[in-house]
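Researcher: We're teaching a course module on how sequence relates to structure. For the next exercise, students receive a sequence and then see the predicted structure as tokens, so they can try to spot secondary structure elements on their own. Here is the exercise chain.
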Amino acid sequence: MEKIALQDIEVQVEASNWQEAITKAGQLLADDHKIDIGYIDSMIQAVNQLGPYIVLMPEFALAHAAPSSHVKETSISLITLKKPVYFGSKNDPVSIVMCIACVDKTSHMELLQEVAKKLMTDGILNKMKQCRTSEELYALFN
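Model: And here is the predicted structure for the students to work with:
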């Protein structure tokens, strides 16, 4: 099962701050008609309200917001950043931003488990950062 579509992956993305990093990760899903722009605003709002809880481990953030009508299809995007950004987390700086969008509270659980398993692979974040093309990152992740 494909976890992340090739068109929803981008490497060496330029972002000047965490808001821009989340926006660029979300924009891939918006361009693919899987979410609308309101979901990107919700992800940024969640961090503004709740703090940098989405920075799950050193260098890695899982951007998301509550399921809503802004989500058309449960989906994931993934970007690596040219220069890391700071969220104000003990796990800063962040070099990899994954965005997950869910249509409801349960249907994404299997997908999330697959992603979590992949992220537990030893050295995976370094391998992800070293990818120079979207195709390389796609092959590594899927």
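Model: If you want an answer key for the exercise: The first strand starts at residue 9 and ends at 13. Strands lie at 9-13, 55-57, 60-63, 75-85, 94-101.
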